[in-house]
Amino acid sequence: MSLTEPELPHTDYDFTPHWFEHAGVRQHYLDEGAGEPLLMLHGNPTWSYMWRHLVRDLRADHRCIVPDHIGMGLSDRPAESVYTYTAASRLADLERLVRHLLTERGLPDRGWTLVGHDWGGIIGMAWARRRPDWVSRIVMLNSTAFTMPDGYRLPWFLRLIRSGGRLPAWFVHRTNAFALAASRLGVTSPPPVRVRRAYTAPYRVEQQRLAVVRFVQDIPLAPVDPAWPLIDVGPVETPEMASLPMLVCWGGRDPVFDHRFLAEWVRRFPAADVHLFPHAGHFVQEDARDEVIACVREFLGRHTEGRS
């Protein structure tokens, strides 16, 4: 079903691949380690590669489940006649994958830690709000899971791609400009060339980029938008959700998710452990890699019993 297979491996992504197939479409995921499950969800235009350092550090004590969204990373690139590239489809994909992991790979239906970034926050929190009894902890990097904060306006480049007509979307689809720009502008400390190449490798040719375009076009801004139900969650979290231990690791120089998003996470989860890295960008896991790993490990160690 994949139109063009991305290339593997990368020297710092030496994990065993797994695939879950549904309706003829294969979704790639990592399943590394043993212990309580950690579900790590990436956004756009990244893939499971972004979690490589956390997986390598945490798999000794935890079971790290790290999927690639359909159309991204190493997952298949189905035609739109076969697969609908919407956030609602991604949520359905996640629920099917978790069911598969429970029934076929022996994972529990309790004790999960959700780790989200970018769109992974929206999709992951939508899943967690449906299954609050399955989730014991939440770790959020620069992301959202609620309606846009008051006074916020989407950056011009995202507005242009999202609703600027066919030409901007065609340009993003025809070139690899969006992934290339993200790999540079999403960090404040330029990573090695091999890392930038790894981030952009799954989107090297045009046939691999449809999901990148559709994710931008699916950004929910109003009730008429298809993804709106995933973020229209009311002004406060349910008691079940609000009581969950939460860690927020935040890059202070994110050009998309600014301080207003962080403030809303804190307002919704006032007991959250918040670590602001003022000089880190959108990819806080790259700019503050060691600090983020240390924060996550300490947080998980303090909350080994879930709702402690």
Secondary-structure map with pairings?
Blueprint: E1 17-22, E2 25-33, E3 36-41, H1 52-58, E4 62-67, H2 87-104, E5 112-118, H3 119-130, E6 135-143, H4 156-163, H5 166-174, H6 177-185, H7 193-200, H8 210-217, H9 228-231, H10 239-242, E7 246-251, H11 259-268, E8 273-277, H12 284-287, H13 289-302
Parallel strand pairs: 3-4, 3-5, 5-6, 6-7, 7-8
Antiparallel strand pairs: 1-2, 2-4
Helix pairs in contact: 2-3, 4-5
Notes on the protein architecture:
- The longest helix is centred in the N-terminal third of the chain and has 18 residues, at 87-104.
- The chain has helices at residues 52-58, 87-104, 119-130, 156-163, 166-174, 177-185, 193-200, 210-217, 228-231, 239-242, 259-268, 284-287, 289-302, and strands spanning 17-22, 25-33, 36-41, 62-67, 112-118, 135-143, 246-251, 273-277.
- A hairpin with a 2-residue loop joins β1 (17-22) and β2.
- The protein is of the alpha/beta class and 308 residues long.
- The chain has one domain (17-302): Alpha/Beta hydrolase fold, catalytic domain (Rossmann fold, 3-Layer(aba) Sandwich), CATH 3.40.50.1820.
- It contains 13 helices and eight strands.
- An eight-stranded mixed sheet has the order 1-2-4-3-5-6-7-8, sandwiched between helices.
Which structural traits does this protein have?
single chain; 308 residues; alpha/beta; Rossmann fold; eight-stranded mixed sheet; 37% helix
Structural class by SSE content? alpha/beta
The CATH level-2 architecture is identified as 3-Layer(aba) Sandwich
Strand arrangement, major sheet: 1-2-4-3-5-6-7-8
Percentage beta strand: 15-25%
Taking the sheet with the most strands, its summary is: 8 strands, mixed
Mean pLDDT, nearest integer? 93
Q: Helix-strand pattern, N to C?
A: EEEHEHEHEHHHHHHHEHEHH
Q: Poorly predicted ranges (pLDDT <50, ≥5 residues)?
A: none
Q: How many extended strands?
A: 8
Rg calc = 18 Å
Give me the CATH fold name: Rossmann fold
Task: Give the termini separation.
Answer: 44 Å
Tell me the count of domains. 1
Specify the CATH homologous superfamily. Alpha/Beta hydrolase fold, catalytic domain
Give the proportion of residues in helices. 25-40%
CATH class: Alpha Beta
**CA-based shape:** globular
Separate helix tally: 13
